Here is the input.
Amino acid sequence: MNNRLKVLRAERDWSQAELAVRLDVSRQAVNAIETGKHDPSLPLAFRIARLFDMPIEEIFDDGCD
Amino acid sequence: MPSSPNLRMFKTDIFFGMMIAGSVVMLAVESYSAIPAVSAPDRPLLVAAISISAMFALSLLITILAGWDRHRSDEYAFRLLGNAAVVAIPTTLLFHILFGQGFLLGGVFGRISADALYAVLLGSWATGYFSYRVRGTLA
Here is the structure.
């Protein structure tokens, strides 16, 4: 699943560690999501969407239209 | 005080690294050990009943504890552990088929002990963990 997490994080000038603290996950989890090595659970996806104040589908793209 | 986001996974990495080292040492040491014969229990029906009950009771207890752990753990770490367990269980079963019986490799090199199988379980779990850690949980 593609996502814009890295871009959104960069726009706010946050490090991976800072974003990890805000989401209450490990930095490695943030890195794995950004690099497409891990798909977040639905609760975490919602936390990410709330943090960036955006709908989930504007952050994550499963490639199906 | 919550641990830093960098340290959370680092501790798991260290733990599984030690697990690999431990399982390798254990397998090497066990290769030199004789397997003591286990005689049949005096009360086999009772032993069977206790074993079966313990299996179900412990499974249910671990299910509850795992659920509690899942809510407290980093979901990425928990997914890694779960995926790695899927690697470890069939690996251990296959290892038991190959070495645990009197035929196949067990007939050639001798059967392995329960402790050696335990080492295989831990080692394959840790290997699976690092494999998914590098390749990602979607691999």
Observations:
- Chain A touches chain B at residues 16-17, 20-21, 25-30, 32-33, 35-41, 44 (CB under 8 Å).
- Helices of chain A lie at 5-11, 16-23, 27-34, 42-52, 56-59.
- The two ends of chain A are 13 Å apart (CA to CA).
- The mean pLDDT of chain A is 93.
